[in-house]
């Protein structure tokens, strides 16, 4: 049993190493900016209402990222955002100097198909830099990236890769590597960063293919160069319940992180004063996601 465990651990480490290596296949496009309008035209903004989080408290997940990035938690507006397609609100931590308005950020995030969005726990915005990353299902958006729907889908895709698909972690699986080997390109230069980012960019393309008339294969005549990667993501998302297809309502959610004081230590909290962040009983709890894509973001030159 011990030998088997050691072999499994060694295999997992090797797979993780492979998933983080830079890819050498050429990019199909210079970026995926040509998908933006199709997404806006075909992924509808969900009706949403927001309310303030209890004064003096912030989710521990938000606070962790905020302090990691060198910001002061007191400079963030914490809000509950309830969309029409889910009975449980998302908790958003929005820096007061963010370059995109809170209302606009809420609209953009709400366009992400709900069965993808449900794999996001909290979202955090900061004013400086570019790009975004996923830490345990919490999304951190730098600067103007918070207004880019492509980025929202891409970052949520990391959660799907790590937790939602049957072959999770898909980017480190032999299935993915075998299908990748049959193609002659990757979606764009960002996908060349490593297999983790490649899966995420292919997930953006698959979301486009499944929701926009004509799809990605209708706007790029060379799309067959990434066919096996696209088809693998499409099969995985379909078998998991059509996670990338718009419509429906949430069925599962990640457990919200514990409310902690904006300032001071958690040990000083009066337990009775903490806000209730429990999920409704009808929602299935998604197990914790172990992922941190900050280094991938840095490798791509976005941090």
Write a structural description.
The protein has 303 residues and is an alpha/beta fold. Helix content is 36%, strand content 15%. The strands form 3 sheets. It has a 6-stranded mixed sheet, sandwiched between helices. Strand 3 and strand 4 form a beta hairpin. Helix 6 crosses helix 8 and helix 8 crosses helix 9. The radius of gyration is 19 Å and the shape is globular. The N terminus is likely disordered.
Query: What is the C-alpha radius of gyration, as a whole number of Å?
Result: 19 Å
**Largest β-sheet summary:** 6 strands, mixed
The ordered H/E elements are HHEEHEEHHEEEHHHHEEEH
State mean pLDDT (0 to 100 scale): 92
The N- to C-terminal Cα distance equals 43 Å
Into which percent range does the helicity of residues fall?
A: 25-40%
Q: Decide which structural class fits the backbone.
A: alpha/beta
Specify the number of helices: 10
Low-confidence stretches: 1-15
Arrangement of strands in the largest sheet = 1-3-4-5-7-6
Q: Which percent range describes the beta-strand content?
A: 5-15%
Describe the structure using short key phrases.
alpha/beta; 10 helices; 303 residues; 6-stranded mixed sheet; disordered N terminus; globular
A few lines on this structure:
The protein has 303 residues and is α/β, with parallel strands linked by helices.
């Amino acid at each position: 049993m011990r030998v088997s465990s050691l072999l499994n651990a060694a295999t997992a480490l090797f797979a993780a190493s492979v998933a983080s290596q830079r890819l050498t296949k050429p990019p199909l496009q210079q970026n995926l900016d040509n998908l933006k309008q199709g997404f806006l035209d075909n992924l509808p903004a969900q009706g949403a209402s927001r309310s303030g989080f209890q004064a003096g408290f912030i989710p521990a997940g938000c606070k962790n990222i905020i302090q990691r990035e060198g910001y002061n938690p007191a400079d963030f507006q914490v809000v509950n955002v309830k969309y029409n397609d889910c009975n449980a609100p998302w908790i958003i931590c929005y820096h007061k100097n963010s370059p995109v308005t809170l209302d606009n950020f809420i609209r953009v995030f709400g366009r992400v198909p709900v069965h993808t969005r449900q794999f996001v726990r909290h979202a955090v915005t900061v004013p400086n830099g570019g790009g975004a990353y996923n830490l345990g299902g919490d999304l951190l958006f730098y600067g103007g990236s918070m207004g880019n729907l492509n980025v929202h889908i891409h970052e949520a895709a990391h959660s799907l890769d790590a937790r939602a698909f049957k072959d999770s972690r898909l980017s480190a699986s032999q299935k993915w590597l075998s299908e990748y080997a049959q193609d002659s390109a990757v979606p764009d230069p960002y996908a060349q960063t490593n297999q983790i980012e490649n899966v995420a960019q292919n997930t953006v393309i698959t979301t486009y293919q499944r929701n926009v008339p004509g799809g990605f294969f209708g706007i790029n005549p060379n799309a067959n160069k990434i066919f096996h990667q696209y088809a693998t993501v499409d099969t995985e998302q379909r078998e998991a319940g059509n996670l990338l297809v718009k419509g429906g309502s949430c069925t599962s959610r990640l457990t919200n992180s514990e409310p902690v004081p904006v300032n001071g230590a958690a040990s000083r909290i009066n337990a009775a004063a903490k806000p209730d962040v429990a999920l409704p009983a009808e929602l299935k709890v998604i197990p914790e996601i172990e992922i941190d894509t900050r280094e991938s973001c840095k490798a791509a030159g976005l941090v």
